[in-house]
Amino acid sequence: MTQDLTTFDLLDGVPPDPYPVYDRLRQEDPVHEMEGGRWLLTRYEDCSAVLRNPTMSSSQRDIGSADEPSLLQQYLSKLMLFSDAPDHTRLRGLVSRAFTPRVVEELRPRIVELVDQLLDEAEAAGELDVITGLGRPLPVAVIAEMLGVPAEDHDRFRSWSEALAHTVDPEMAPDVAERATIAGLEFMEYFNELSEERRQRPQADLVSALVAIEDGGDRLAADELVANCILLLIAGHETTTNLIGNGTLALLRNPHELDRFREDAGLAKTAVEELLRYDSPVHLTGRAALEDTEVGGVDIPAGDRVTILLAAANRDPAAFADPTRLDLGREDNRHLAFSSGPHFCLGAALARLEGQIALSSLVTRFPRLELAADEVEWNPTITLRGLQRLPVAL
Ligand code: HEM
User: Fold this and answer.
1) Residue 1 CA to ligand 1 centre (angstroms)
2) Which of 160, 228, 332, 361 is the most exposed place for a label (fewest CB within 10 A)?
3) How far is residue 313's CA from residue 42's CA, in Å, rounded to a whole number?
């Protein structure tokens, strides 16, 4: 059955295989109008232009709960992800002084060790769910250790950040919003205590580094510090899980590419870029037009909100040769999976490193890797595209 494109709206849910409808949108209605002053973009050029346009706001965009000022809203408003220049520039500048490429590169041996441990456990068990056995535990351990969160708290962290992951969706059901609010409050309390502790007794971790940061008298205020620690944790968690999950699934469904990867570990870098492009872990992001703006020949009035479908842009034939083909050696791969412009993913280097180590270890260590389920089930979140489970035979 061919879907009627005029009423297409992602709020109705992302289809299990969304790419055919994205292709049709891109061809037939690339600047697609939805109800209530909302637009959906699917062309690479339009998406890229909007992400880099300073009059397209991240602070006014639709996020999670749009109810009257709540604690959750207050917290969300302190995130660099949901702020515009000059606040954004300041927050990002302060956090990136602690979260540097060197700090990330120093994590390499620890990531290798964590991946080896998880794969040892899988080998001993004789089976693996790539989501629960590798994709979830790895990033949460990495970012929690990096921040300086004790190991015994990692499980609590995971459940808080899962509850909060919904806040990046364009809309949230009331019960989901309530769970997110509770998780947010507990999280804030936790980080308030942790940062107070580090203020007294600094350690070699990111929370201590953030507490110490001063910028010409400008400090990261306590609430900003806590909010952005939570952001690092959430942003670095389910996204990376989805890279590992979606990436493994794409490899299993393209056995030639899987063989190619196994035989040439040197492909890890381009392979991860290609997997990010092919089934993007962050499916979309949003902006709000502060001024009347022309996008792809269509006038978008001030105040309207725009959804940038990164996953569709990443399959645009105008930007990628043969975009539906998975090619682990693809060159000139300027995908938008980490966004573009001022909000370009701050954790991209870390995500890439984790993805490269996890995926290359998985395929080389288990040469007979096979999908052990007839069907796969996707999470109900809209912004974060990922699998609920991915059982594989070793
Ligand atoms: C595969 C994994 C990841 C993907 C696909 C991803 C994707 C993205 C995207 C698309 C954005 C920008 C959204 C926008 O323009 O509105 C973003 C922002 C961000 N990401 Fe990531 N991310 C990943 C992993 C990480 C990790 C590991 C961290 C940190 C530990 C992280 C931290 C951040 C932060 C702090 C921002 C906000 C940047 C800003 O607003 O200036 N991300 N990410």
Assistant:
1) 36
2) 332
3) 5
State pLDDT tens for residues 123-162.
999 999 999 999 999 998 999 889 898 888 888 887 887 7
Q: Would you say 284 and 311 are in contact if contact means Cβ atoms under 8 Å apart?
A: yes
Give the separation between CA 303 and CA 293, rounded to whole angstroms. Answer: 10
Question: Residue written as tokens 């109705």?
Answer: 12
Q: Which of 278, 345, 352, 353 to mutate to test the pocket of ligand 1 (most atoms within 8 A of CB)?
A: 345
Residue 211 lies in a domain: yes
165 belongs to a structural domain: yes
Domain count, the chain: 1
Q: Ligand 1, residues 142, 240, 338, 383: which to mutate, most atoms within 8 A of Cβ?
A: 338
What backbone torsions phi and psi does residue 283 show, to the nearest 5 degrees? -75, -35
Q: Is residue 12 part of a domain?
A: no
The pLDDT tens digits of the residues spanning 274-315 come to 999 999 999 999 999 999 999 999 999 999 999 999 999 999
Give the structural domain span for 30: 17-393
